[in-house]
Amino acid sequence: MGNTVSCCVSPEESPKLPRQPVDRHEDYQIITDVSDDTGPYLQHISDREVPDELAQESNPSDHARASTIFLCKSQTDSELRDKRKSNHINHTSPGPLSKKYSSCSTIFIDDSTVSQPNLKSTIKCVTLAIYYHIKNRDSDRSLDIFDEKMHPLSREQVPDNYSVMDPEHKLIYRFVRTLFSAAQLTAECAIVTLVYLERLLTYAEIDICPCNWKRIVLGAILLASKVWDDQAVWNVDYCQILKDITVEDMNEMERHFLELLQFNINVPASVYAKYYFDLRSLAEDNNLLFPLEPLSNERAQKLEAISRLCEDKYKDLSRAAMRRSFSADNLVGIRRSNAVLS
Known about the structure:
Blueprint: H1 52-57, H2 69-75, H3 78-90, E1 108-110, H4 119-135, H5 169-183, H6 187-203, H7 213-228, H8 235-242, H9 247-260, H10 269-285, E2 292-294, H11 297-324
Antiparallel strand pairs: 1-2
Helix pairs in contact: 2-4, 4-5, 4-6, 4-10, 5-7, 6-7, 6-10, 7-9
């Protein structure tokens, strides 16, 4: 995670303040009536879990058990649903047979994991999620700070029908890819960008639509790059990428974005993993396959070394736990040599 969450005050300098994530209070409380004569009350671990009915109503960007918004919108898409139904009835493949399968002699693995996602495929999935957000939006609620007509990103005149023409997936992908390529951002930053975007839509109760999608995506990328990357890109650097936007406009948009998020920039590991696997599900539904490569000797040795390192670390933690105490709970894993009776 990075160590910069601040606005650039001027093009010449960018003050770096220590990042202090704000912990959000849970939306529910468990009240237990404990009498005084029972001693101190020890809360059971099941009492700390989010109930299923609350998890469904919670913000997916805060709770790991809540369904992501983009996956729900993609599954309710009429065109995609009709395409799946037609493929099921006709027993046809949704696209060209490009998926590779492992055999006894060859093992295919993709170059994308939850800790190191594939950059190109991740950007395609994230922009596809944004596309379904815009296409299947509930309404056109927006704010002036994100309106492209009031705050244009270029000197070109904004067309009159800018607020009614839904952008194509290719247009969204080119916009995001340009920013990630120029700023040299990582694939993990793209996933955090989507988390912040859905958190903004939920907290501010707005919709991402044709009139504001560019500035909302830009604000989410700007914030995600500062939170995630150790060497964050300054606001003035984005001005050099987009050319016609001013650093004052970038600062103002960043301040509004943080205020609308209630300064909640924390992304739990469980939430990050949920978004990653939901993006993979979205890619499979839309025939966006992650690149598969045969497992080479070098890659196999690398995976084996990583596995051995994790196994050694687990053994060290187990030994440290055993040295602390020898309670009855820890006696299960202890093995002794067999005694010889004569």
